[in-house]
Design a protein that fits this description.
Chain A is built from four helices and 13 strands. Chain A has about 240 residues and is α+β, with helices and mostly antiparallel strands. Among the domains of chain A are: about 80 residues, Beta Barrel (Thrombin, subunit H); about 80 residues, Beta Barrel (Thrombin, subunit H). In chain A, the strands form two sheets. Chain A has a six-stranded antiparallel barrel. The longest helix of chain A has 18 residues. The longest helix of chain B is centred in the middle third of the chain and has 134 residues. Classes of the chains: A alpha+beta (about 240), B mainly alpha (about 210).
């Protein structure tokens, strides 16, 4: 058995060691550079802006001029892919020549047009590439959804307006099978064929009519998808005037 | 160190005030005070003294160490303070640059917006011009059609006049022509003139539109 003195000595030694351990350390060397590494540029924040500052929605939207047999009228369309445009049937009907211009005034040569019997929709094919096309939404919008309409009201400047979806309703013109969607987005003659975009920039419908209550109507994207998936629903549109 | 007085060896005297005073006289028996301390206690004293010495040395070393560390911290605090002032100045410079660049970005953004609006206006101007060109081309086509019609009507009316003049000449010389021939010619003139008149009426109607 250890003597009390040994224990005392051991205790004192342990106390000394503990005391030494509790001593503060000397400061570590200061860093030579306090500047953090340069942050990586977040390309995703650039959104859908193009190098010229116009949005993808503006770039894909075109102005359609229908040089008709007895009239001259204008409408709107948008690119589905590099050589395919979507617009309304009544925009391309009774035509002798279709002329398409882009947001910056560039003229696109039209090669053919086809119209749908089940809805006020038409497909225009072009000789030159229009650029990146629209992204179609997977589902139709529902009541209360915010929308944006890009088009050429009254054949004037490219204009962007917004509104909300009021809900599904029957076609006021009786031209489409199934239901269409009413919106609060203000449109004018010439806006026909305008793409309707949701908040993600996806196309959810195509404007084709308005009523006296300033409500606009659009063909839902589901019907547009059906039309694009089934070619037999499209009828080639003759671009010549039949003598009558 | 204390000693215990012994009544056997001490002297006691009294003063006038009847007070008693004790005087202690050291006893010298040939030994030191340390010799009279037991050995065990001596060792204890040595150990304690040694420990106190070690503690004193250790405390001195710790004090020296603490002073050294404190000096190092003080030096580093001064360095950090200097670097903070430097960083502060650089930050102020960068902020001034950021403000200047932001102003430039705002200006360029405004210029871009203006340029975009101008592009849209020019595109619209081109579109309106082309619309007008198509409209005027249609007008020219329509006017050309009207002009051709008017020319044809004028020709018909001229023929009518010519035929009428020929008919007048024939009627002035009735002996030179058979009555049936005159009647047939007159019917032909009437037919041509009726057709010219009808075409002229149609032309006037078109022009009125």
């Amino acid at each position: 058995m250890r003597s009390p003195r040994t224990l005392l000595a051991a205790g004192v030694a342990a106390g000394l060691l503990a005391g030494c351990a509790a001593l503060p350390d000397a400061p570590s060397p200061l860093p030579t550079n306090y500047v953090p590494a340069a942050p990586v540029a977040d390309v995703a924040q650039q959104g859908n802006l193009s190098p010229d500052g116009f949005s993808q929605a503006q770039r894909m939207t075109v102005r359609v001029r229908n040089v008709g047999c007895d009239s001259l009228k204008t409408g709107t369309g948008f690119a589905y892919d590099a050589h395919t445009l979507i617009t309304n049937r009544h925009v391309v009907e009774d035509t002798s020549e279709l002329q398409v211009t882009t947001y910056d005034g560039h003229t696109i040569t039209v090669t053919a047009a086809s119209v749908a019997g089940v809805a006020d929709l038409a497909i225009i094919t072009t000789e030159e590439s229009i650029g990146a096309g629209a992204v179609l939404a997977q589902e139709d919008p529902v009541e209360g959804d915010a929308i944006t309409v890009v088009g050429y009201p009254n054949g004037g400047q490219l204009t962007t307006v917004s509104g909300v979806v009021l809900g599904a309703t029957g076609d006021p013109l009786g031209a489409a099978l199934g239901t269409v969607l009413a919106t609060t987005a203000p449109v004018e003659p010439g806006s026909s064929g305008s793409p309707v975009l949701n908040e993600r920039g996806e196309v959810v419908g195509v404007i084709y009519a308005k009523n006296e209550a300033e409500q606009s109507f659009m063909v839902p994207v589901s019907l547009l998808r059906t039309l694009l998936d089934e070619d037999q629903l499209l009828v080639p549109q003759q671009q010549s005037c039949n003598p009558s | 160190m204390t000693t215990t007085p012994s009544r056997d060896h001490g002297k006691i005297s009294r003063n006038a005030a009847n007070e008693e005073t004790t005087v202690l006289t050291p006893i010298s028996d040939g030994t030191t005070a340390l010799d009279r301390i037991p050995i065990k206690r001596q060792r204890l004293w040595i150990i304690v003294t040694s420990l106190l010495g070690v503690l004193l040395i250790t405390a001195g070393m710790m004090i020296y160490r603490l002073v050294d560390v404190s000096n190092q911290w003080e030096t580093q605090v001064e360095d950090v303070k200097a670097q903070n002032y430097d960083l502060g100045e650089r930050l102020a410079d960068e902020q001034a640059q950021v403000i200047g660049l932001q102003a430039q970005v705002d200006l360029v953004t405004e210029q871009l917006r203006t340029a975009q609006q101008r592009v849209l206006e020019l595109a619209d101007d081109v579109a309106q011009r082309d619309d007008n060109a198509e409209f005027y081309a249609r007008q020219i086509t329509d006017l050309t059609d009207v002009l051709n019609t008017a020319s044809a009507v004028a020709n018909s009316l001229n023929k009518c006049v010519d035929y009428h003049e020929q008919l007048v000449d024939i009627l002035k010389q009735p002996d030179n022509y058979l009555p049936d021939e005159v009647a047939t010619f007159e019917a032909g003139v009437t037919k041509v003139c009726d057709a010219a008149t009808a075409a002229n009426v149609d032309l006037q109607t078109v022009l009125a539109q």
